[in-house]
Amino acid sequence: MTGKLSAGDEAAPRHATLLGIGSYRASRVIPNAEIVDAIDSSDEWIQQRSGIKTRRWAAPDETVQSMAVGASRKAIEHAGIDIAQIDAIVVATVSHMFQTPAVATAIAHELGTDRPAAFDISAACAGFCHGVALASDMIRGGSAKHVLVIGVERLSDLTDVGDRGTAFIFADGAGAAVVGPSDEPGIGPVVWGSDGEQFDLIRQKEDWRDVLEQERPTMPHLVMQGNAVFRWAAFEMAKVAQQTLDKTGLKVDDLDVFVPHQANMRIIDAMARSMKLPEHVRIARDIADQGNSSAASIPLALDRMIAEGEAKSGDLALLIAFGAGLAYAAQVVRVP
Ligand code: COA
Fold first, then answer.
1. pLDDT (average), residues 103-114
2. Cα-to-centroid distance, 199 and ligand 1 (Å)
3. Which of 125, 129, 221, 264 is catalytic?
């Protein structure tokens, strides 16, 4: 018991911020008309219940890895740093079809980085905000200087096109952010948690071993108890949004931008109403033509708002992500 452990990097920066953001939209635009016959539905019903008009599905060559690399290259360019400066890559996904190794390692290799820490996290639709929270803490703890956080999904692989409850919702794409050190706080404290009692409201239908025992094995698709998810998201997440503002020391009036997980337009509207968001707060509504791309939805939506001038550098944006688990995470960030 003579040795004394070093506490690590004593000179670690006090603050972290988003330095850049980038996204990649899957190329196939699938209108409601193309999916309604298989689920005995209509364009009108889908728009009224979810706000979705079209969704993006990947072409065969648009893989989880390739979409993530596309988004990452843009985020790194936006951040204005060299790829070699990235020393950790965190990928949030549930649709990388290999149990191991983590897709983060292959993404690192394709990007040409110099042996960064690289790992995947599984927090479903809440994954990107979990990744941002981890990155912020890694930087402030001194274990990384620049962290690339990626949210990527190819949910069309896990969607049963004949399931009335999910076929119209899920989508494909990637979003990435570079998180780095900062003189001022650029990422507020996270409010995160889970409600394991409801862990099975959104889930993979069966485990891979059960799939193999079927006479005609099919993909273990995602299934969802839509009504219960809707109630939880619309009511509980507005409370989490308020807790996040309280913890950050902000009022709803201080916000410029609100970027909730793009789950369903009715959930977005219900949250905005119960939070009493003032008129000046611009709300992300990427769901209408992107669909719900789970871990990719928040960076896709924020990147679009920046491109369209709805979010400006320095704006305060409340991010809130929620989904299977039921897991959630929220924080206020400065728009890069
Ligand atoms: N097309 C047409 N009709 C449909 C349908 C479809 N795809 N799916 C269900 N229906 C019908 C049902 O048969 C039922 O008809 P009935 O009243 O004659 O019995 C009616 O619509 C209501 O069904 P229900 O299952 O209660 O639908 P809902 O109102 O809950 O809407 C969702 C379904 C999925 C749109 C809704 O539950 C929802 O948005 N949930 C949240 C989903 C979400 O955001 N998930 C992502 C979280 S990460």
1. 95
2. 20
3. 125
